[in-house]
Design goal:
Oligomer: single chain
Helix content: 40-55%
CATH topology of one domain: Rossmann fold
């Protein structure tokens, strides 16, 4: 794709990156076949190829409009198109660049600005979100149906192991997960403790930065990344890895090195942190035989596995969870269209509720059609979003293993 960037971005690091991405696109349209919003809306401008054209026009100097912004806002950033693209177009990076440029040129209505500010401030601060979430659960009948959908019934965390082990891993606690599903990290700690690994929490670490970054506050998102790097750095030498139990957070941490590569003060540290980042599904396969021996006969039946987009398309991790669960005695089934997004996508379910619910209902229908009595996933956003649309229990896959080990 031939481009001629406007002066405002020409020669900048973002401009050079965007130009390289645009030039890689050959207009083939394979991406439209796997784009969830194109499947629902049928509009070329609500598919990756159309959005690429819109971004190209803006970067070449065309004035963006509210309609331009709307089409970019509707993108889930699920990265399914990147998995499909035969030319390796880095669409995710391009839409981040395009959204930021459009955000600077198209003022949003006051109510929308207020909603986005509340999400950026409220979701990313655990000390704000946790009490607000508990209050919401208390007064749930008084809330709108949309807000009630966000209040899932969470299992209590249970005991965090106290033993010390020679093998240690850092854990990203997260910002919303400790309140919404406190058992996920506690279950992870118990399973790894049984395998001789100690999980370490660093209280100074917080939100991974994805919420701000993907809501066009890229500077704020990078500040979150720097804070986490500073918090983890003193522990880097004694930790094997930085473990993440939410695939959306894991993807963001794995991108720190790239996103901060032009920051002279943080580039090398960010690269090291990204190299250390591991999704839980990348760590546990080492222990498959031990887990299978310990859990023999304790797990039966089958579950429907929902692979989050941030795991299968973002981190490009496929098959590991399924293989591990099958090895310990669980029959795992994938639903029709398992590659498509469930509609959660971070704050998307709040900012684009109609589209999000339509995608959720489509996904839930396919998951329920498997006949499985339960659904497991690997990202808190997907878990809470799917749970709001089904009576089947939706949990993190590590919770299955934790329950079996406790029997």
């Amino acid at each position: 794709m031939q481009t001629k960037l406007a002066d405002f971005i020409k020669g900048t690091p973002e401009g050079e990156e965007a130009e390289a991405i645009l030039r890689a696109c050959v207009h083939c349209g394979f991406c439209t076949a796997t784009c969830p919003t194109y499947q629902v809306l049928g509009d070329e401008l609500d598919g990756p190829r159309g959005r690429i054209y819109l971004i190209k026009q803006v970067l070449e100097g065309a004035a963006p409009t509210e309609k331009t912004q709307q089409h970019l806002d509707r993108c889930l950033t699920c990265l399914n198109c990147e998995s499909t693209c035969p030319s390796g177009v880095r669409y995710g990076r391009l839409i981040d660049i395009g959204r930021r440029v459009v955000e600077e040129r198209v003022p949003r209505p006051a109510a929308e600005r207020a909603k986005r500010a509340l999400l950026k401030q409220g979701l990313t601060r655990k000390w704000l979100f946790s009490p607000a979430y508990k209050l919401g659960q208390t007064v749930a009948p008084l809330l709108s149906a949309g807000l009630q959908d966000k209040l899932i019934r969470n299992a209590p965390a249970g005991a965090w192991p106290r033993r010390s082990h020679a093998r240690k891993m850092l854990l990203l606690d997260g910002c919303v997960q400790p309140a919404m599903a406190p058992n996920i990290n506690a279950a992870t700690a118990r399973v790894l403790d049984a395998l001789g690994v100690e999980l370490m929490l660093v209280p100074q670490a917080g939100c991974c930065g994805a919420v701000r970054y993907h809501m066009n506050d890229q500077a704020g998102g990078l500040d979150d990344a720097r804070r986490n790097i500073d918090a983890w750095w003193p522990q880097v030498q004694q930790a094997e890895c930085i473990l993440t139990t939410a695939s959306g957070c894991g993807l963001m941490v794995k991108e720190y090195g790239e996103l901060l590569r032009h920051d002279s003060a943080y580039a090398s540290k960010a690269k090291r942190i990204s190299e250390m980042a591991r999704d839980l599904s990348e760590v546990l396969p080492e222990f498959t035989e031990r887990l299978a021996d310990a859990m023999r006969g304790k797990l039966a039946g089958h579950v429907a596995w929902h692979p989050p987009c941030t795991l299968q398309h973002g981190q490009r991790i496929r098959g590991k969870v399924e293989d591990l669960l099958r090895a310990v005695g669980v029959e795992v089934v994938l639903c029709v269209e398992s590659h498509l997004c469930c509609g959660s996508a971070g704050t998307y379910s709040v900012l684009q509720p109609e589209l999000s619910r339509e995608l959720r209902d489509r996904k839930v229908q396919h998951l329920e059609a498997t006949g499985a009595p339960a659904i497991v996933s690997a990202n808190i956003g997907c878990i809470s979003h799917l749970q709001s649309g089904t009576r089947l229990p939706v949990t993190h896959w590590i919770e299955l293993i934790d329950r079996a080990l406790s029997l």
